[in-house]
Amino acid sequence: MRKILLLLFSMILLAACSNQETIKATGEGDLWNAHLIYEITDTHLSDRGGIEYTGDEKLLYVTYSVVTDEGGRTGEVEPQEEQTAISFGTSGGNNPPATKDEAIISLNHATIEITWRTITGEYEEQINLKVN
Question: From CA 56, how far away is CA 1, in angstroms rounded?
């Protein structure tokens, strides 16, 4: 009985994933690169992404704000020694864009606002994302 339930669960999971679309948007600033990836199905949207510092100074503190048509998220990080890449992690919701085209429009409107501190001061940069 357990094997049958496992098989049914696996089939349902595979069927749900078969309608999944993956859309990636990227952007570059003066000292940061960013990316955001949407994975959408008919009933669910998950996103993940991150930023990478391209400057020469050591990062002491970083805050970021991701703003999309579906909402946003913020975070703050005290980078480890020599750390230049920061992940936003993964988030999701049950209110995906209605179509792939709407998801692309949303990502093309997305921005990432970054504030960071180094030994020489505090800086800001905003990156506009575009679907590749």
Answer: 60
Q: Which residues pair with 65 in a beta bridge?
A: 74, 113
Which tens digits make up the pLDDT trace of 88-131?
988 877 667 778 888 899 899 999 999 999 999 999 999 999 99
Contacts of 98 (CB under 8 A, 6+ apart): none
* Residue type (1 letter), 1: M
* DSSP assignments along 16-51, one per residue: HHTT-EEEEEEEE-SSEEEEEEEEE-SS-EEEEEEE
Q: Which residues of 10-42 are buried (b: 16+ CB within 10 A; e: fewer)?
A: eeeeeeeeeeeeebebbbebeebbbbbbbbbee
Q: Which two tokens stand for residue 16?
A: 């749900």
Integer angstrom CA distances of residue 48 from 51, 94, 100: 11, 15, 17
pTM for the model: 0.80
96, exposed or middle or buried, with CB in 10 Å at 0-12, 13-18, 19+?
buried
Tell me which DSSP letter residue 69 carries: T
